[in-house]
Amino acid sequence: MSDKADDFAPSRRQFLAGAAATGVGAAAVGAGQAAQAATPDPLITEVQEWASGLGDGVDATPYGLPIQFEQDVVRRNVEWLTADTISSINFTPIHALDGTITPQGCSFERHHSGAIELRKEDYRLMINGLVDTPLVFSYADLERFPRENRVYFCECAANSGMEWAGAQLNGAQFTHGMIHNMEYSGVSLRTLLEEAGLAAAGDFKDKWVYVEGADASSNGRSIPLEKALDDVLVAFKANGEALRKEHGYPVRLVVPGWEGNMWIKWLRRIEVMDGPVESREETSKYTDTMADGSARKWTWEMDAKSVVTSPSPQSPITHGSGPLVITGLAWSGRGSITGVDVSIDGGKTWTEARLGAPGVDKALARFYLDVNWDGSEMLLQSRARDSAGYVQPTKAELREVRGLNSIYHNNAIQTWWVKANGEAENVEVS
Amino acid sequence: MSKFPKVIAAAALSAGLTLPAYGGTYGLGRPALPEEIAAWNIDVSPDGTGLPVGSGDALTGEEVFAEKCAVCHGDFAEGVDNWPKLAGGQGTLDREDPLKTVGSYWPYLSTTWDYVNRSMPFGAAQTLEPDEVYAIVAYILYSNDLVDEDFVLSNETFADVTLPNAEGFFVDDRLQSEAHFWKPEPCMADCKDSVEITMRARVLDVTPEETVATEAVVEEAAAEPVAAEPVVEAAAEPVVETVALDPELVAKGAKVFKKCKACHKVGEGAKNSTGPILNGIFGATAGMVEGFKYSKPMLAAGEDGLVWDEEALAAFLTKPRKFMKGTKMSFAGLRKERDIEAVVSYLRSFD
User: Fold this and answer.
1) What pTM value is reported for the model?
2) Judged by CB atoms within 8 Å, which residues 240-269 of A form the interface with B?
């Protein structure tokens, strides 16, 4: 994508263009009215090129990309957030997606020293430390262990971090897009640790594993051995295909329900230890500063959270009043989503939304609320509830405990101000 | 050895028997050699476990820092642009926009040593000698007013240093301090009396604008669906027009250039960053990119008529600081001649 200045225009223009596009050939539909066509629709009455000529043959794109009309559905970066794009983050276009699985190609990226290219043939995974036999696995070795398939969300701890002090970024992609949800295929970490033997570790209770990546940042995190033996996966496929380069090809760690920084990409080493390393990423970063200046550490679990993805600032209502699908995503690092409530009046009253499918453990849930919009303003919110009994808090409730400097783990209720013309804006309400 | 069980398995299948299931381990992988473990197992724990023997003082560290770190972190560890500040900020943690540095926030010195050793300098990680790491870390302590300039940090003095915010952290207590977020029956109606908008994102206006490429597609498609140009092509990489360049070499150069990308931008829309933009650098006079603050030696070389031809670029890229003493470019250099050729070809494609 080019980043020429003249490629950009105010989002309002985009909004109007969207409205115009849907307006072609059909008048806006009023509440409870059927649409009336004034003149026959030439898209129907005239033979169109695509109905007469021929399309692409097979193999035109041996590995396909989305059709050109969807080329705005891409990851986006917020340039002012970081010094450069190599140690940086971008955002999943959640405002334009549906269902729960995130395609790899538009799933947010977070690199500390850039996305490296590591061949399977050059891949090595070492297990060392308090194990009976330190081992080295090749990629081919990993493929010979029993495999599991599991769907999990991966959320950066800093997702919504820019919103702590107030409403800042105007779009669900930017406020909540540091998340993706994929089906992983891989080997359980427990299997690999048991292969090396854990008798040397003694009592598991006070033991840790330190996991580290092969890239120049050698991003590393300490994980309690109990979690490592519970549900952590060493994954090599996502959504059925090889991991993309930007997601850690050929092998990444999957740490269900826990902050994305622990999901080490290009995983190269697992060390069983008798204490945490206290690496840069678990001390100077990914610790949550409270109002009094003290900081919480080891805040690994992602609290239950949700957001309305449409309508939202990047996905305005363009069809006028009448039937409207309000939809969004909900997730919890402590279990499954049991319900999502939606408010159109800024949290005075709530209506239970419909889940697209029953909540899955530590995976995204899609919710829908099908309404007959009367065309008046809405202060649209969603509120997630999870199987642990946790209810997504308001920003005010969170700030009361944590202050404004936490950066990480902002799981507050989001408000979109949807105006009568269908445009939406990120706001905060009392 | 590996073929034998396969034969048994096949025989078992054909006989209609179930395959033997594994009970414990699988016999996969191989023992890690001591040299291999030593090469990768270099993390350092808070108590100093993992530190190699070595030492370095703050004054030496200042020199190493100026050469290898200051381009991003500033001469005084104060940070350039958006790059991390490593010094200052003490007493700001409870204020609006706290400044989190090694001196004000980091709890353990081991973290600094470990991170510098394994992950820095940015773009040339794991090239520092242990003594250089000790010296750099000593200088970072000095720049935070935590030690004197003659302080020597070593594997032996390491334990003497306690960082100011060592006691500033507590273990996740959300289950207690946020217990009220677990609600048996969340409010569904009459949850508050009134709702007012208290803040709007649009007022701040810091959201990246979206491309209107889609708009163009939509409009064109609506007006004249047949003629809709594939916009994809317009956004593709600029076509290399210079005939003399070997496309394979240019492509290889694009890969090599990844080592440079942290600091140098090239191509359409490129801007000066830590280093100057490199559009049209081939054949240009040294130190002439507008708006970039060059080192004095680079400016002087340009005034003396240094032109970036094949030879000069090759010499500079082999050993930047040998070719130009005092350059701000903190890059160790490209070792392979072929890489230099490739990256020069790549840069020439942006003439």
Assistant:
1) 0.81
2) 268-269
